[in-house]
Specification:
homodimer; about 400 residues; alpha+beta; Ubiquitin-like (UB roll); six-stranded mixed beta sheet; five-stranded mixed beta sheet; 15 strands; autocatalytic cleavage (chains A, B); ArgJ-like_dom_sf (chains A, B); acyltransferase (chains A, B)
């Protein structure tokens, strides 16, 4: 599983003492090549963590040999000293790899850095740098699962995926269990492939994949400062897929990881798919789905197993999407509780006892559709997020 | 207190059996004149309840003699039959007033209707219409407080205000304890004045008042289908204030009622003022304040008495306001925990033990400012809203 299934990659996850629990908190992914092409998508938040600012520059260079990731601290809102810490982490990773791995010369400008954890605090560099050295020593072809575990924060399980192409594969790992929002989550994701693909092809495939997967997960409407999705290609398979083939595989990998994120969202008791159909445009469908996904009254109602379609209509009514209030239909888990904007089938027929909930909204305004994935708003969400930093 | 302090108004509140608790649920406000000018602001939600659609037409006519309000049912998403129910309520109110009040002839087109309660269910007209007749019988110069009580839903106290002008006054009542959101709340508000003022003057004063008060309350980011603010003028004082005088008094009344709404928001443990200063424009300040007010991670942190300024910055970062991430300052209850986008004073100095919280965000990008009022996100909010309709 995970990032080390594709040929040409090694990984490691170690405990450096950044987490007070003593759990693993530093991960490293190394691309042994022959290629080292890369694409990335970063948070749209204008307040970007130091590792995001750093990695944006690195990716612009077009070559990424290694990714070093830490949990236990986001290194966000830490000013110039925080950026220097990220720079030092990349330098240290590059130097350790160059001195430890035969025939490998890595520059700091080829090392992407990702961090996750509390915002506003400096990283303990005296722990992080020894952790990087330990991770370099631990690198192995079977290290994917250990790396996936080391990037967890409030996640209860590690998230990994593998998607097979024709003679090449895509592997991936992700973390994120809250602050999942438009244009992503506090989520870190590293995808690897042994396909032969230039950075431009990778970029096109990754953007389309994120657009219809991670960008449509909206767990709690909150957008993080650290979101990063990286796609590294080693070319070790010697096979060059088409854009369509690559996009399909990367999208499948992202979809699988996105579903794992929603399933493990902080304190959630429901995984909710909001299918908007009959929209005049895909943008309209996304806007409507997101508005419902972010509505606290809808989310608390679903936590209470209440198919409160009136709150769904009230959320739809705040959008600019094309629709008429008296022609909307809404189904909750297959029961059309609202037809033409008014009560229809008996709401008591709706079974909300399970974790999976599907809300289907037919705007009857066109033929476009989109699905947004979200969670309910529970007592446990309030508890976890009111106690997180204290 | 309330709507009957200004001369020329009578009111009543009675129990008609719409609420299963047996509490008062029908209110009536009568303008005895000599004038019957009116202005109104309605929800911006595109899914509008039947009484909103009705009252919009009535207000357009320029004369409102009476307002009939009910709790115990929103009459929203009820289709054409729901609109007929509203029409019938206005007709019945007009006929009862005409037959009961000497020298008064009222048409249905001069009766505004407001409803609040559950969305998606028809009103029990067999209870509502007798309630209207009872309210007509109970009309009195001291009926303001009874009317204010009859419009409560999950409110724990009735909301009333009086603001004195020079020889004229403004009185008001409001309800609303959740679903408070941009462009208002599930809130109903009736303001009365004995000033002499044409509908255009009233309209100008009311719009400006709402813009800086109710429109800046954002308790839970959810916008209702029923929001209505009405301003009725009787002219009984014989005094004609200037626009500035009228605007000041109406704004003061709305501000007072808005603060009462925030103080009584469902399940809230904090009343939070988000003061955004140093903005390039007032719109920027409002956008930033609203983004922070709607951020569930900020709201849960404050419930947990945690001055988590990193989450505040992450919320600011999602806006399009003019600012630089490394020049923002944030104070929580007077302690500047963030300066220039990074940690400053020790967060442990922040006292969050009380109900009142002030977050001050200095964007250092200009000289405009705005305040948004909101609440925290508590266990009780989740409880009330997951159990409301079941």
């Amino acid at each position: 599983m995970s990032v080390t299934v594709p040929r040409g990659f090694r990984a490691a996850g170690v405990a450096a003492g950044l987490k007070s629990s003593g759990a693993a908190d530093v991960a490293l992914v190394l691309n042994d090549g022959p290629d080292a092409t890369v694409a990335a998508v970063f948070t749209a938040n204008r307040v970007k963590a130091a590792p995001v600012l750093w990695s944006q520059q690195v990716v612009r260079g077009g070559v990424v040999r290694a990714v070093v990731l830490n949990s236990g601290g986001a290194n966000a809102c830490t000013g110039a000293p925080g950026f220097q810490d990220t720079h030092a982490t990349a330098e240290h990773t590059a130097a350790s790899l160059t001195s430890s791995v035969p025939r490998l010369i890595v520059g700091a400008g080829e090392v992407a850095v990702c961090s996750t954890g509390l915002i506003g605090e400096r990283l303990p560099m005296d722990k992080l740098l020894p952790g990087v050295r330990a991770a370099v020593r631990e690198l192995s072809r079977g290290g994917g699962p250990a790396a996936a575990e080391a990037i967890m924060t409030t996640d209860t399980t590690s998230k990994m995926t593998v998607v097979a192409g024709s003679g090449w594969t895509v592997g991936g790992m992700a973390k994120g269990a809250g602050m999942l929002a438009p244009a992503m989550a506090t989520m870190l994701c590293v995808l690897t492939t042994d396909a032969v693909a230039g950075s431009e092809l990778l970029d096109e495939a990754l953007r389309e994949a994120c657009r219809v997967t991670f960008d449509r997960v909206d767990s709690d409407g909150c957008m993080s400062t650290n979101d990063t999705v990286l796609l590294l290609a080693s070319g070790a398979s010697g096979i060059e897929p088409t854009l369509a083939e690559l996009t399909a595989a990367v999208t499948a990998a992202c979809h699988d990881l996105a579903q794992q994120l929603v399933a493990d969202a902080e304190g959630a008791t429901k995984e909710i798919a909001i299918d908007v159909v009959g929209a005049a445009s895909e943008d309209d469908a996304v806007e409507v789905g997101r508005s419902v996904a972010r509505n606290n009254l809808v989310k608390t109602a679903l936590f209470g197993k209440d198919p409160n379609w009136g709150r769904i209509l009230a959320a739809v009514g705040t959008t600019s999407a094309a629709f008429e209030p008296d022609t909307i239909d809404v189904a909750v888990n297959g029961v059309w509780v609202c037809r033409s904007g008014a009560a229809a089938e008996d709401r008591s027929k709706v079974d909300l006892s399970g974790r999976a909930v599907t809300i289907r909204i037919d705007l009857n305004a066109g033929s476009s559709a989109a699905t947004i994935w979200t969670n309910d708003l529970s007592h446990a969400y309030v508890h976890e997020n009111s106690a997180y930093s204290t």
